[in-house]
Every structure is written in C-alpha cells, then in structure tokens.
TrEMBL record:
It comes from Micromonospora saelicesensis. Residues 8-241 form the ABC transporter domain. The keyword Transport applies. InterPro entries: AAA+_ATPase, ABC_transporter-like_ATP-bd, ABC_transporter-like_CS, ABC_transporter_ATP-bind, P-loop_NTPase. GO terms for molecular function: ATP binding; ATP hydrolysis activity. This is NitT/TauT family transport system ATP-binding protein.
Length: 270
C-alpha cells in the first residue's frame, strides 16, 4: 500500500493531568500512525496511560500538546467517526432498553430511514452472534453476551475506527477466547479499523496485526511490532505456534525493559 494515507495519525501526543497533589505526566511523547482496516493492539503495564491515550484518540480528552489527526483533520472534540467499547459493559448498556433499543440508540443521531436503521441493527446483532436476543433486556444476558451487545452497538454505528479499552478484562477465560475470535472475525470479514487496548501480552499478540508496546508512564512507544502470524488464527493452533511464543516472549521482555529504563532503545524485532 505505498500511496495509501493513514487513517489515524498521532503526533507527539503529551498529556499532563493537573490534580490536587500536583501534576501527573501520563503520556510523555507518543507518535504513531494507523492505516485503514488495521487491527492495532496497544499493550502496556497498568497505569501507563492506555486509557488516557484512547480518550485523546476519541476526542474525549484534550492533549496537553501534540495532535491526533483523523483522515488528515485534527480531532478537537468527541469524534463521530469513532466508537468506543469500554471494559465496564454493565454500565455502558441501558437496563430499561431492550438489546435492540440499546444497539439502535446511537443511530438516532444519524439521518437514517426506519428501514435502514432496522437493517443495521439486525446486521450488527447477526455479526456478533446474537440474532435471537433482540427483544431481551441486557440484565437477562451473561456478561459475555452483554459485551457482544456493546460491540454490536459500536459496529451498527459504522465508525471509521472502533476503539476498545480492555473490553474483555472482566469475563471468564472461555468467554474471553470467544470474544477475541469475534474481534478477529470483524477485522477479517468486515475490515473494521480497530484500536484494541489491553494489558494482556498474549491477547495483544493473538489479536493484533501490529502491536504497539508502551513504556511506563510518562509513556512513549517502546516498540512498534508487526505480528507476522497467519491471518486465519484460532485459539488452539495459533497459540501453539513457536512463532507465537517467540513474539509473546519478545513483547514481555520489552515491557520488562521499559519498566527498568523508560524509553530505552528497543531490541531488534525477533
Ligand atoms: N483524571 C485523572 N487525573 C489525574 N491523574 C489521572 C487521571 N486519569 C488517569 N490519571 C493517571 O494517569 C496515569 C495513566 O492512567 P490511565 O490512562 O488510566 O492508565 P492505564 O489505562 O494504562 O491503566 C496514571 O498514573 C493515572 O493515575
Ligand atoms: Mg485503563
């Protein structure tokens, strides 16, 4: 893709929080780009500034300095081009609305015909494997199913970028594996551009086409790593590949390095 231009461009992003106990420099100096259709994982230790970064990406938080550009234009406020899925699905769905009502809600801001709205809701519920649950209420569903509803709501909106903040941290291992495969499926079959934030190294390597390893706060890019695993992945065979082990060991070592000496020169890629 020599002449394709980036979808997202982050230029020297810095974020300092002013709090009662003084200033907290969460993000030191971050720069990276993302191409259309990419599945980019962002991994880093707890408290390193991952949530801060994605709030800046989505325009929910103003950077102290630096810039986020979406298709060449600076993001200066909450961006309609982005949809965010947070970890706390329990709090992100409205209990008094049905699944269908929850997925449809953001579409009310778009000028769509009734038929088009219905089509998008049905299509999104289909994509996340919940076509039968449209009339249920969120509290009648398991945690994993609720997170599927949150994902359906995001994709029905057809954002330019889907941003996910540790979305599977609160579900059990089996559910988590299924949800990871859902994200892979959306990437492969729908080409949805996704920024997936996680503190889980294995998850970042399993999901990502690229993994951005962040250093400890004040955060910098410790490494920008291409994940050269096959496009078609599955939980058993992919995780058993020697290359998977190599990559996860490498990312783990990078994070350890970042802890000892922030922003040190990265090791060569494995
Ligand atoms: N609203 C805030 N005010 C002050 N400090 C904050 C605020 N939000 C986050 N921080 C601090 O910024 C750093 C990065 O936080 P965060 O982005 O939530 O990290 P992560 O998502 O990687 O765990 C932490 O040191 C955190 O305590
Ligand atoms: Mg966070």
């Amino acid at each position: 893709m020599p002449d394709a231009s980036p979808l997202l461009r982050v230029e020297h992003l810095r974020k300092v929080y002013a709090s009662g106990r003084g200033e907290v420099e969460a993000i030191g100096d971050l720069s990276f780009t993302m191409m259309p259709g990419e599945l980019l994982c962002v991994v880093g230790p707890s408290g390193c500034g991952k949530t801060t970064l994605l709030k800046c990406l989505a325009g929910l938080l103003r950077p102290t300095s630096g810039l986020v550009k979406m298709e060449g234009s600076p993001v200066t406020g909450p961006s309609p081009a982005m949809a965010v899925v947070f970890q706390e699905y329990g709090r992100s769905l409205y209990p008094w609305l049905t699944v269908r009502g929850n997925v449809e809600l953001p579409l009310r801001h778009k000028k769509l015909s009734r038929a088009e709205r219905d089509r998008r809701v049905a299509d999104a519920l289909d994509a996340v494997g919940l076509p039968q649950s449209a009339r249920s209420h969120p509290w009648q569903l398991s945690g994993g199913m609720q997170q599927r509803v949150a994902i359906a709501r995001a994709i029905a909106y057809r954002p330019e970028v889907l941003i996910m903040d540790e979305p599977f941290a609160a579900v059990d291992a089996q559910t988590r594996a299924d949800l990871e495969d859902l994200v892979r499926d959306l990437h492969l079959n729908r080409g949805i551009s996704t920024v997936f934030v996680t503190h889980d190294i294995d998850e970042s390597v399993y999901l990502g086409q690229r993994v951005l390893v962040l250093s400890h706060s004040p955060t910098r890019v410790q490494e920008d790593l291409v994940i050269d695993l096959p496009r078609e992945r599955d939980q058993l065979t992919t995780r058993a590949l020697p290359r998977f082990t190599e990559l996860r060991t490498h990312v783990y070592a990078q994070i350890q390095r970042a802890k000892r000496a922030p922003a040190s020169a990265p090791h060569p890629a494995p």
